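Hi! If you just cloned this repository, the fastest way to understand the data is to look at a raw example. We've pasted two of them here, unedited. The first protein comes first, obviously.
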Amino acid sequence: MDPEDQKLVTLARATRARTGAAEGAAVRDDTGRTYTAATVALRTLSLSALQAAVAAAVSSGAQQLEAAAVVTDAGHVGDDDVRVLTEMGVASPLVADPSGAVLS
């Protein structure tokens, strides 16, 4: 695996562990900046970790992403996550389990 992609998995894993959330995610924009986020599960707002990471990137001015990673027990990401990543230029994220082992 590319070292920069491994960094995304490490950041996503650390974010998930730090917050105790269901998922952690990290994305890298086309200038090399990284953004991390965890699952948002409020009564009035629900975002997957990938959606929250993309929102952080876009709100910081990112126009395009070049890579994304998510750490989850589920072993996959939902269709909504795939759609938002596709809109931002990423065909599919790296998906890893909580140990950091990449599943896809």
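Ok, and the second one:
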Amino acid sequence: MEGNESPFDRIVRGTAGAIMLGIGVSSFTGPIALVEGVLALILAVAGGLLLLTGLVGWCPAYAILGLRTCAPRESRR
């Protein structure tokens, strides 16, 4: 499986995902919650997905829509 995210895209996704995941999870585990309830759950799940796609370098939504933010690799023969 070939990646479809550029290095910049991966950094932005990873950073945003880590922040969102941290905010979402802190409401379940910490004494001070920035958000609560459904919003915390949404932030945690969305943040986890962004972090995962940033780490892997492949986004299923990009694949479905036929988008790429990175240059295609040259074929090796």
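That's it. A detail worth noticing about the second one: The chain has three helices and no strands.
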